[in-house]
Structure formats: structure tokens, C-alpha cells
């Protein structure tokens, strides 16, 4: 989590030291006992930097936190009160492993905005859509199985695939998203090599981190290719309703109910603190997902589900999404305007929705190497390497425009531009910039959700 | 979930049919794509029965739901309102993967009642302690690894171990809990066979389902044996503060900080609907658990955590636990009184805390075979087979006294006695009772938490 000021975040950066002192040792007596999968779990080397980046004086263009100041907190407080006072015996009790049925019906209403026609029984409510990612991976992936994903791809999904010892094969994208011809040749090569591909993971709308969307023309082509190769499509769509222009695009799930698992979330269109997401799946897969979720958490929180359900039934949630869209569009404008003014030597896309700009640095610059100096200059971002399975992406960085105000975004880009200028001088003098140790970025955690 | 009346629970029993009709098929086109671990996930054959058992006319002695009617819902409603209205920007936002620091400090206060001395940094907040079970299993278990557990053992833990393809070896218990000599000989035999034991899973207080507690004398002996064999102890303690007589026993974690992972929960001492549990782990293990949890859910719900934190800091939570203890003691008395009156041919223990009585049926009776007839007679329980990895336990059943009122408990036992009498007549006539198909009970879900 970034840019949240206050004592808790500040303290968090110091605690490991005091804990190590309190316990006298950091040795791990259980080192030999871990499962194989655990050896792939490592803290990102950028984590320590993010602890610093959380300080209020740093402009963080790193996080994926939505900006919540526009929410009607007094109204939401009354809802929370009513949920507990009048429906407490249900809200505070265990619930269904699949999720509250009323909420599942309301989720259908939300998804109808993207053309999805489903049954409440097809929906499984999860603890954020991150848990849906975990459950889908859990039921499909054996160690060594292949997941095909965009290059770049959402860092939190890559972390899940790594945790289940999958192998991720990236497919290039362009301004219209996943390139069907590249997908086809990748699947053909994997098939020829006898490597089973379990699913295609894709963020078709306002991609994290690349900011692009899969064009409406390409959607049926991608689905047709996946179907032909017997590959399930995992459509991850947290940002689909946050487009800046026009109507939402039709979801891939709306074109293929049997071949697509659809992941949705209230984290970006409402608020992440309740941790409510969902997955829509064909009947038999849905049954497995419910069993897997019961094993993982027994059931999602009734209190959270009923709060969101009441919000949806009593508040103007469409109006809230509209005001989010306007706010994020203004911030996107601030971001691309500041880039044009201060960093014309870089290149970037102009996203028409979502939270992120994907920036290519001038030749010779390395986004990960540069990060410590950026944080020293009081600006933070996520280096492109976080979004590749194989350490590629060092020439890119992800800049988020979701959380800081337009003014802070402009200030952040100004600071970034001075860091880039300093790096370019170093490169001109020495042919390279100094390097921080470490390789592929691992599990950066909620900081860069 | 059992005994929750109302339209939602009723509907849930019918939906699969309508869904199958809506989709026209129950075939699974992705059957060949599942991971190996998924083939071990099966719905319990008692699940369909529990859908019926949820009807209000059935007395369910099956569920592990706490009885929440005594909670001050008006006060909790005000807390929920305050949390959102005054701290909404934090409560509705992403939080730390490890959990809210204030709550982690308060958890230390709760655990101090059982003699545990820890640092807030040792605590990881989870989505119920079920998620803690999942995370611990995830980081330690390779397929084929051995987990040692009491015979019988908590069904939800067995489900997690199965989901990670562990092999569970049971160790007998008696009225004082796990038998140290049996643990030692089991570990010795496994060691001689070259089979790595990753951890000992134990519920030392008011065992689920057996109702017994590990005596204070045995605790250091069990720890010493585990240490000698290099086996981590997973101490699962949701009921420790719900003893009916005297002070809470000292936790095993209070005697060994490096060799014990401790699982705690607010589900039984407060309410399960917020889904807040925790794990206390040695430093290095804790780091792995945080990474695993971030991969699984990004972070636990801030809204839930702050609600519980505010409850702990502003309400008399110790008084609430005391009133729970008195209520459950009264229900325990109703249960054992009714058993003595109506089922003297069975045998059972008299638990001094928690939610469960473990009942041995008269010779020749099979608890799983009998269940459909019991549900027909409007009483439900969980057959003993659910609590064994290997299908043992058919001569036992778990009777819960947590949710139904004393009067309903007595009525339930009366109904059960008439079913048992009918079974005994069958056995006397034919030498056996009729059987339902199916074998080991799998993943019964939140119904029997």
C-alpha cells in the first residue's frame, strides 16, 4: 500500500529490526521443512524501497490503490450500522461457501453492463479477485504447466502462477492488446513441443500495467484461437467499467460462456477494503472452485458481502462509477500532459481507462537500477521487470495515476524527469548506470496491486 | 451452515437443479485440464443431506456455528458506523498483507490469557483461521508429505491437508488428549520408514470433534517429543477461552516459541462473519506466511479488522466471552443430560468447554448409514467418518451443542434416540443396517466448521 501517511505505515518500516532484536536471531530452524513451492516465494527487492516510498513526502506513482475520498462515507457508515443492527445474526455468522445469493444476483446486474448473461449459480464470491486468481490456479495448475499471458502482465497474477510452480509464456501486445497472430504461433509452438497450456490469462480492458485494451474486433479471434487449442481463457476485468470514453466494451465472457472464466471485483469500482471479488465459471468448474474456496477460507465474509449488497441496492453505484471515471480521466490527463512536458525523450501510451501508463525509458536506461535514485528524489514507480516472468521489461516502468492528485502527479513526473536526466548523463559518461543487486521482482504485495 | 432458516438457505438446496436445466448440461469440458490436487476435491455425500438438514423443522446437532443472539447488535452497529464514517479512508482501502498493526497488538492481549508472550510482528492476520491452516499447509507440504494428527481430527483441517495432497497419520487420544507414548511410537515408525513428517496438527483445547483437552502435564511432553523428531507443532486453538470451569490452560505456544505455530480466531469467541483469524509464527516462517497470504488474497479486510479492533478497545469482550461460556455450559448440560436419559446404551465424554460431544454408538450401528434416517426423523449430526483420513470412525458421531437452544437439544436427542432404537432393531433382525453409498467424507464445507 502506498502513500498512506500516518503512524502505522511509518512504523511498519521499522518493525522487522526491533523484532529481530527481540528474538535474537533471524536464522530459520525450519528452512529444510518448506515445500518446494515455497522456495519460489521471495520478498521483492523493491519492497524495502516501498517502505520508504510510503512516506508522505514521496510522490508514489507506484501503487494501484483507488482514490476513495469521493465516497459518501456518512451514507456508507449508516449502511454498515444497519447491516449489523438489523441483520447482524446473518452478517456476523458463517455464510455460504459460494457467497451470498442476493449479492450474486446483483453481481449479474453489474456484469450486464458488459453484455454478460449468467445465472447467480455461476458466480462464486471471493476475498477480492486475487483469491479468485488463486483458486483458479489451484484447481488447474500442476507444477510445470504452462500459463500463457500478455507481455507484460499483472504482477499479482504472475506471483500466483509462480506460487503454484507454473511456467508463464508471454505473448506480445500492441496498442490493440493481445496480438492474435502471436497468440496463435505461441500456442502452436507449445503444442508442437508437447507442453500442456492450461489457460490464457488476460486483462482485456485498461491493462495492468500496459494501459491498452483488447479491441472489440480481436476478442472473437482470440476466443476462437483459444478454443481451437483447447485453452481456457481467464478474463481478469477489474477496470472494465472505468473507461474514460464511451460505453464499456463487451466482455469476452459475453461471447463464450463455456470457454471463459471471468474475474470481477468491487475493489476499483467501489472500494477494496471489504475484499469482495468474484469469479464466473461454467457449472462443473464452479463446483470445484467452491470446494477449493471452502478449503481455503470456509466462506467469504457475510458482513462485507451484505454491506456491498446494501450499497448496491440503496446507493447510486452507477453514478459513483461515473464520478470515478471523471476523476481518473482528469488524472490521466495530468499524467500524459506532464510526461509530454517533462519527459519527451520517453514514450508512453495514452490509456482510455483504468489506472496505469506504461512508459518506455530512453535508450540505455534501466528502470530497476534507477529506482533507488528516484525514491531518493521523492518519487516512486514500479519497474517494468515486475510484470514479466523472465526479468524482461527493464526499459519500462509503470506509472499509476489513480491515487495522487493531479498536482502531485505533475510534481512526481517533474521529479522523475530530473532523475532521468541524471541517469542519461551517467549513461553518456560511463555507458551504463549503476546497478542495484537482485534479479526478477517477486511478490511485491499489496503495494502494487 | 446449519439451522439458519429463511429463504436463502431454502433456495440453495434447489438451485443446482435449475442451473443444470438453464445450462442444459452437467458435462465438464475441462475435466482433463484439472490439476492432480483437484481430483481429491469431492463434495461430501452428506452435503445433500445437510441441505435438507438446514430446514427449520430439523434439529441440527451437526453445525459448528456459534450462537450469536447474545451479542449487543446495536452497539456493534454503532461501531460499524463509526469505523466507516470516521476511518473510512483506511477501512475501505487496501491494507497491510500481514494485517492491521493495532489489531495485532490487541491479539497479543487476547493470547496473554493463555500465557502467550509474543511480539505484534509475530502475528499474521488471516481470513478466519481456516486461511491460516491453508497458508501453513501451503508453505510446508509437498505431495506425499506426512501430517500427524489426532484420531479423530477437525474435518476442515483434513480437507486442507487433502487439498495439498498430504498423507495424514492419526495418533490415538484418550480423556487427556493426545497420548504422548502413541505420538512417540508413531513418529519413530515414520522416521524408521524414512517418511518426512512436516508437522503435528493438534487442537489441544475442547477438541473438535472429540471434546477432550490435552492435559497440562502432557503439553511439555508432547512438545519435547515433537522437538526431538524435528516436527513443527501446529496448535489450532479456536475454543481455548471457552472453558466451562476455571482458568484457560497455558497454550503450547507459551512453552515453545520456536517449535509451535499457533492459530487463533475470533469466530467462536466473538463472531465468524468478519472472517478474522490469525497465526503466530517464528520470524522466518512468518515472512513466508505473509508472502503466501499476499499471493492468496493480497491483504485481509481492513473493514473487518478495524471493526474487531474497535470492538476489542471499546466493549467488554472478556464479559462477552464469559457470557458465551455460561450459555454453552448450559447447553452442554442439556446435551449430556438428554444423552443419559434417552441414549444410555451409547457412550460419550462430558466436555468441559467448546462446542462438541463425541458419541460412540451401540455395537453394530453405523453413524453414516444411519444419517439419512436421522434426517428423516428431523435430527442431524456429523458421522465420525468425517474426522478420519481413512474412513474410520463409523461407530461415532459428533453432536454439537453450540447453536440449538437447550430445549431443542433435548428434542434433538430424543429424536436421535428413536432413530437409534430403530437401527438396533434392524441390526438384531438382519445383523446389519442398510447402507448409503459412498466412502470417506470429503470437504463438508462451512456446514460443519
Any overview of this molecule?
Two copies of one chain form a homodimer. By secondary structure, chain A is an alpha/beta fold. In chain A, 42% of the residues lie in helices and 13% in strands. Chain A contains 14 helices and 14 strands. Chain A has an eight-stranded mixed β-sheet, sandwiched between helices. A four-stranded antiparallel β-sheet of chain A has the order 10-11-14-13. In chain A, strand 6 (197-202), helix 9 (218-228) and strand 7 form a beta-alpha-beta unit. Chain A is globular and about 65 Å long. The first copy, chain A, starts with 6 loop residues before the first helix and ends in a 19-residue tail after the last helix. The interface between A and B is large, with 114 and 115 residues.
Descriptive tags:
alpha/beta; transferase (chains A, B); 449 residues; four-stranded antiparallel beta sheet; GntR family transcriptional regulator (chains A, B); 14 strands; eight-stranded mixed beta sheet; pyridoxal phosphate (chains A, B); pyridoxal phosphate binding (chains A, B); homodimer
Amino acid at each position: 500500500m502506498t502513500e498512506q501517511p500516518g503512524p502505522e505505515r511509518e512504523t511498519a518500516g521499522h518493525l522487522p529490526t526491533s523484532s529481530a532484536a527481540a528474538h535474537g536471531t533471524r536464522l530459520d530452524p525450519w528452512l529444510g521443512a518448506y515445500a518446494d513451492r515455497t522456495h519460489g516465494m521471495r520478498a521483492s527487492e523493491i519492497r524495502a524501497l516501498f517502505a520508504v516510498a510510503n512516506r508522505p513526502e514521496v510522490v508514489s506513482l507506484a501503487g494501484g490503490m483507488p482514490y476513495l475520498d469521493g465516497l459518501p462515507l456518512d451514507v456508507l457508515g449508516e449502511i454498515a450500522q444497519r447491516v449489523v443492527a438489523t441483520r447482524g445474526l446473518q452478517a456476523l455468522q458463517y455464510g455460504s461457501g459460494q457467497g451470498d445469493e442476493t449479492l450474486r444476483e446483483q453481481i449479474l446486474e453489474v456484469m450486464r453492463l458488459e453484455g454478460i448473461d449468467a445465472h447467480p449459480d455461476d458466480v462464486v464470491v471471493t476475498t477480492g479477485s486475487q483469491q479468485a486468481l488463486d483458486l483458479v490456479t489451484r484447481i488447474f495448475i500442476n507444477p510445470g504447466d504452462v500459463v500463457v499471458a500478455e507481455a507484460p502482465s499483472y504482477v499479482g497474477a504472475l506471483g500466483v502462477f509462480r506460487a503454484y510452480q507454473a511456467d508463464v509464456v508471454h505473448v506480445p501486445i500492441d496498442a490493440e492488446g493481445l496480438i492474435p497472430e502471436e497468440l496463435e504461433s505461441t500456442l502452436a509452438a507449445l503444442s508442437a513441443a508437447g507442453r500442456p497450456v492450461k489457460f490464457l490469462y488476460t486483462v482485456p480492458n485498461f491493462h495492468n500495467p500496459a494501459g491498452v485494451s483488447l479491441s472489440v474486433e480481436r476478442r472473437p479471434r482470440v476466443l476462437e484461437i483459444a478454443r481451437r487449442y483447447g485453452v481456457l481463457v481467464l478474463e481478469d476485468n477489474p477496470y472494465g467499467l472505468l473507461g474514460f470514453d464511451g460505453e464499456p466494451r463487451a466482455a469476452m465472457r459475453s461471447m463464450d460462456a463455456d470457454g471463459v472464466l471471468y474475474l470481477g471485483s468491487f475493489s476499483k469500482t467501489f472500494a477494496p477494503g471489504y475484499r469482495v471479488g468474484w469469479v464466473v465459471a461454467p457449472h462443473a468448474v464452479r463446483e470445484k472452485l467452491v470446494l477449493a474456496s471452502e478449503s481455503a477460507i470456509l466462506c467469504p465474509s457475510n458482513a462485507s458481502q451484505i454491506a456491498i449488497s446494501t450499497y448496491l441496492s440503496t446507493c447510486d453505484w452507477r453514478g459513483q462509477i461515473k464520478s470515478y471515471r471523471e476523476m481518473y480521466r482528469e488524472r490521466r490527463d495530468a499524467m500524459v500532459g506532464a510526461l509530454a512536458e517533462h519527459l519527451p525523450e520517453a514514450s508512453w501510451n495514452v490509456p482510455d481507462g483504468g489506472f496505469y501508463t506504461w512508459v518506455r525509458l530512453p535508450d540505455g536506461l534501466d528502470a530497476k537500477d534507477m529506482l533507488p535514485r528516484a525514491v531518493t528524489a521523492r518519487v516512486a514507480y514500479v519497474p517494468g521487470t515486475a510484470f514479466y516472468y523472465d526479468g524482461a521489461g527493464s526499459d519500462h516502468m509503470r506509472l499509476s495515476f489513480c491515487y495522487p492528485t493531479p498536482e502531485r502527479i505533475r510534481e512526481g513526473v517533474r521529479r522523475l524527469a530530473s532523475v532521468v536526466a541524471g541517469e542519461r548523463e551517467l549513461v553518456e559518461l560511463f555507458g551504463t548506470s549503476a546497478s542495484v543487486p537482485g534479479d526478477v521482482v517477486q511478490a511485491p504485495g499489496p503495494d502494487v496491486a
